[in-house]
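Exercise 7.
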Amino acid sequence: MRELILRQKQILFFILAGGLSAIVEIGSFKVFSTYLPHFFPPETNFHGIHYPFSNIFSTICGILTNYFLSIWFVFERGKHSKRKEFVYFMAVSFISTLFSLGFFQIFYSYIFKENISLIFYTLSPEMISKIAAILLVSILNYSVKKKVIFNG
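Solution. The predicted structure, written as tokens, is:
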């Protein structure tokens, strides 16, 4: 029973850490996608890729936030050294970033074409695509980070 409670607690903390990291990633994406095209106009469509640098920079912000929250609140230390653990975490995050960028392009190009109006805010297709990509990749991230990096 204790193990089940600890497991549920870990999943809850992972969701909270992921949620905070997603807020950082989505917020920074909003900032980058709003201001970066003023300095680099091809950002909105760079050789057929929409918002590549905004995606990359915001994902880096989210990854770093997630790393520190994960080691402080979510996972216990694994069998790896801190250095090796960080390298593995970044490698998994890099692969996840590639998946996230791919999913974003698919969502933005083919699925989310219109704004979604909420009571207090309107979500643009690029924001909806970013959120959907984050949610999809987070499932993969939890599994790999728990099994491979932190040996849970």
